[in-house]
Design goal:
The protein is mainly α. Helix content is 50%, strand content 11%.
Length: 197
């Protein structure tokens, strides 16, 4: 059966809300299979660790909040304090690079990045770690991924995703699935948001 419902998932690899929603995504995939066609839009929550610090984040505060997420959502979280704050844009670009090889490698890397950050306390903005994690994703050719990672095609895809994520529709706004982050001029979709069409 061919897909007849497209699901646009507004995502970020290092968003604890998005990670905590994985059981819902997996249940949808298992129940509906190829009736759903998934498309992931990378929101790009934090350009860098420095940008996070300007918004008031600290490694200690994140570690404490992950304990709350673990209790509330029953997802595995490592509550160790990370050595530093880490931006999410490099991980978002990595997902776009993996998607050049297909939806399955892109989804596989996104899931692997989440586990690396939330369970293993690894850094989503370290290039060497991104390359190592890519090597663990089935169907992802690491040499091609490494070549694509810094290319203009990946940067353009990420820029398109961020622009799309910052145009929430009236439904998302009414459902409170849009927010205006500190320091940003525009509203954006919250993560995760799923749009079915």
């Amino acid at each position: 059966m061919s897909a007849h419902v497209q699901v646009t998932h507004y995502a970020d690899a290092a968003c604890p809300w998005d990670y905590s929603a994985e059981p819902v995504r997996i249940a949808l995939e298992e129940r509906y299979g190829d009736q759903l066609e998934w498309r992931t839009v990378q929101v790009g929550l934090h350009e860098s660790g420095e940008a996070m610090a300007r918004r008031g984040y600290t490694p200690a505060g994140l570690a404490r909040s992950y304990g709350i997420f673990q209790e509330r959502h029953r997802m595995p979280f490592c509550m160790e304090e990370r050595p530093r704050l880490a931006g999410t844009w490099p991980a978002a670009r990595a997902v776009k690079a993996a998607e050049l090889q297909g939806n399955a490698p892109g989804a596989g890397l996104l899931r692997r990045l989440r586990l690396a950050w939330f369970v293993e306390a690894r850094l989503p903005d370290d290039r060497n770690q991104l390359l190592g994690l890519a090597g663990e994703v089935e169907g992802l050719h690491v040499g091609r991924f490494a070549a694509d990672l810094d290319g203009r095609e990946v940067e353009a895809a990420f820029e398109r995703d961020m622009a799309e994520a910052r145009r929430p529709d009236s439904v998302a706004i009414a459902l409170e699935k849009a927010a205006q982050p500190l320091g940003e001029a525009r509203l954006r979709f919250t993560t995760p948001t799923y749009v079915f069409s």
